[in-house]
Amino acid sequence: MTTTAATDADDFGAHPRFAEALRALGLQDVLARARRFPEGTRTAAEAAAAIGCELSQICKSLVFAADGTPVLVLMDGASRVDTERVREELGAGEVGRADAGVVRETTGYAIGGVPPFGHRTRTRVLADRALLAHDVVWAAAGTPHTVFPIEPKALVAHAGADLVDVREQTA
Questions:
Q1: How many Å apart are CA 79 and CA 52, to the nearest integer?
Q2: pLDDT digits (tens, 9 = 90+) for 66-115
Q3: Residue 147 and residue 85: Cα distance in Å, rounded?
Q4: Residue 63's closest CA among 105, 21, 93?
């Protein structure tokens, strides 16, 4: 495992827009704990392996389209989103994964590096309750190589998320 504390003393490897969002929220301490992994943290499995944590301690930031309107779903790395549950939660007719162009347009970040907040546009956010099972979760810091640790309740609050149960249930 190769890790670097920062590529730049100012942003600790985080995307500059996300670093600025953290500073604006008074979360410089979170920014200072960001970790960059040159081998990448694009997927939840890659991030968990690089960090050395449980897959469920990774917070995935996934963009869906609910009747054509983007919505961000924060989900633990070991679970999958149940789009039917998201549809019911939002009272939408149809819910599906947003394409890469919509993700970048909505958040300002590429898939594999979307952070849970600090986006280009204000978007409805749903956070699955399973994230609260951990003391700390790790989320993307705006790049596919950089992650940051945060307490789940703080993550939900800073994302302005509604706490819901939208993960697929295993039999």
A1: 18
A2: 999 999 999 999 999 999 999 999 999 999 999 999 999 999 999 999 99
A3: 28
A4: 105
